[in-house]
């Protein structure tokens, strides 16, 4: 079993040493990865997952980066259990999470408190499902390693959110990735402990894998909006069989236009807008042609099963027409539509002179 990344990814020795140190822990580690935007957190997280999977059958991945998630479309806080290596770290890899919450935005800036509640809820689920009490040693033991990916907003309120996250999760290992531009980095040392020393947490400080001509660690600039659009389109590409001839964005847009939507009775669901209030008279106008979270109400936060595009609304028949890759069995559980600020890629809204044939 090989844990090596794709040839286009250079893994420095300190990255390998950090990953092997974590994977060699006597108990399943809980590792949180943090650092400035685009410093390589996601790449290291997936590399670490591969190293862990050479030593155990499965590992959990808690993704708190709602703008650039690894295994889901944008807008989600999720827990994914990974069973297989991902040999090419450069290719986005959609997976079905075990649990996910639809935050409905690509940044926590709009509502940091709600964002932290989502993270706590997902982490509590992990603790409930993958922790047992050892009667002999009279303590709790973790059954499966966890990797926590975090966003790159590490200044101002973003810093405060990260500190709260660290204090709540209490990881066994923290990987802090830095670059040569010091003012973009997190503070040195165990910055979240308010000066207190905690020997139970192992801090690993490494540099970004990207270097400039002077061999300094640098950030990699990415077109975040384009990457989000591509991930959304990859998600809705799942509406079609893998062998379908849908090799371009234009073909996907046309295919979705002709794709037969599910008919969802309006009376069977609730509609909730995340982070904002919408007048009841405007609800259907705001929903039309929008991306929504397909969720199931629960005692606490509603679990989200996936995304849908509201293709059309017929208020006379009392029907919503929704396109989603979810199977009918899963869709039958949905009783709540969540609308946030996740926008449909513009290229999917520009197909003209096409009518649905179903």
What does this structure look like?
The protein has eight helices and 15 strands. The chain has helices at 13-23, 41-53, 112-129, 157-169, 224-237, 249-258, 283-287, 328-331, and strands at 30-35, 59-63, 76-82, 99-102, 131-134, 139-142, 146-149, 173-178, 202-207, 262-265, 270-273, 291-296, 303-314, 319-323, 336-339. It has a seven-stranded mixed β-sheet with strand order 4-3-2-7-1-8-9, sandwiched between helices. It has a six-stranded mixed β-sheet with strand order 10-14-13-12-15-11. A hairpin with a 4-residue loop joins β5 (131-134) and β6 (139-142). α1 crosses α2 (41-53).
Summarize the structure.
The longest helix has 18 residues, at 112-129.
Ends distance: 46 Å
Strand content: 15-25%
Shape: globular
Order of strands in the sheet with most strands: 4-3-2-7-1-8-9
The major pleated sheet works out as:
7 strands, mixed
Count, helices: 8
* Low-confidence region ranges: 353-357
Please provide the count of β strands.
15
The helix-strand sequence is HEHEEEHEEEHEEHHEEHEEEHE
CA radius of gyration: 21 Å
Please give the share of residues in helix. Answer: 10-25%
Averaged pLDDT, please?
A: 89
- Which class of secondary structure composition applies to the elements? alpha/beta
InterPro entries: Clp1/Grc3 (IPR045116), CLP1_P (IPR032319), NOL9_C (IPR057570), P-loop_NTPase (IPR027417)
Domain NOL9 C-terminal: 259-345
Domain Clp1 P-loop: 35-237
GO cellular component, one term: nucleolus
Secondary-structure map:
Blueprint: H1 13-23, E1 30-35, H2 41-53, E2 59-63, E3 76-82, E4 99-102, H3 112-129, E5 131-134, E6 139-142, E7 146-149, H4 157-169, E8 173-178, E9 202-207, H5 224-237, H6 249-258, E10 262-265, E11 270-273, H7 283-287, E12 291-296, E13 303-314, E14 319-323, H8 328-331, E15 336-339
Parallel strand pairs: 1-7, 1-8, 2-7, 8-9, 11-15
Antiparallel strand pairs: 2-3, 3-4, 5-6, 10-14, 12-13, 12-15, 13-14
Helix pairs in contact: 1-2, 3-4
Domain NOL9 C-terminal: 259-345
Protein name: Polynucleotide 5'-hydroxyl-kinase NOL9
Family: Belongs to the Clp1 family. NOL9/GRC3 subfamily.
């Amino acid at each position: 079993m090989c844990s090596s990344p794709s040839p286009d990814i250079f893994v420095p020795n300190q990255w390998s040493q950090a990953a092997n140190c974590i994977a060699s822990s006597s108990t399943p580690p809980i590792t949180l990865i943090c650092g400035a935007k685009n410093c390589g957190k996601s790449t290291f997280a997936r590399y670490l997952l591969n190293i862990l999977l050479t030593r155990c059958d499965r590992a959990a991945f808690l993704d708190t980066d709602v703008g650039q998630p690894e295994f889901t479309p944008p807008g989600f806080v999720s827990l994914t259990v990974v069973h297989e290596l991902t040999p090419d770290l450069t290719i986005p890899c959609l997976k079905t999470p075990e649990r996910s919450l639809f935050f409905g935005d690509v940044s926590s800036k709009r509502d940091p408190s709600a964002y932290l509640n989502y993270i706590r809820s997902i982490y509590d689920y992990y603790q409930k499902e993958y922790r047992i009490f050892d009667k002999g040693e009279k303590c709790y033991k973790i059954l499966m390693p966890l990797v926590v990916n975090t966003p790159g907003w590490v200044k101002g309120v973003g810093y405060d959110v990260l500190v709260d996250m660290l204090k709540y999760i209490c990881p066994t290992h923290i990987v802090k990735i830095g670059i040569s531009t010091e003012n973009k980095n997190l503070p040195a040392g165990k910055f979240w402990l308010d000066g207190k020393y905690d020997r139970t947490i192992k801090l690993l400080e490494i540099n970004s894998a990207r270097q400039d001509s002077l061999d300094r660690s640098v950030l990699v600039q990415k077109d975040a909006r384009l990457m989000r659009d591509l991930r959304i389109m990859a998600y809705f590409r799942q509406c079609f069989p893998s062998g379908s001839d849908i090799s371009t964005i234009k073909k996907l847009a046309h295919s979705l236009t002709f794709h037969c939507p599910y008919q969802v009775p309006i009376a069977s669901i609730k509609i909730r807008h995340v982070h904002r209030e919408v007048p009841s008279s405007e609800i259907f106008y705001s929903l039309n042609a929008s991306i929504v979270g397909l969720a199931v109400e629960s005692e606490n936060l509603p679990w989200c099963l996936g995304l849908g595009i509201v293709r059309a609304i017929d208020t006379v028949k009392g029907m919503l027409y929704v396109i989603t890759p979810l199977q009918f069995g899963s869709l039958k559980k949905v009783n709540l539509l969540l609308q946030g600020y996740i926008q449909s890629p513009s290229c999917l809204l520009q197909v003209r002179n096409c009518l649905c044939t179903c």
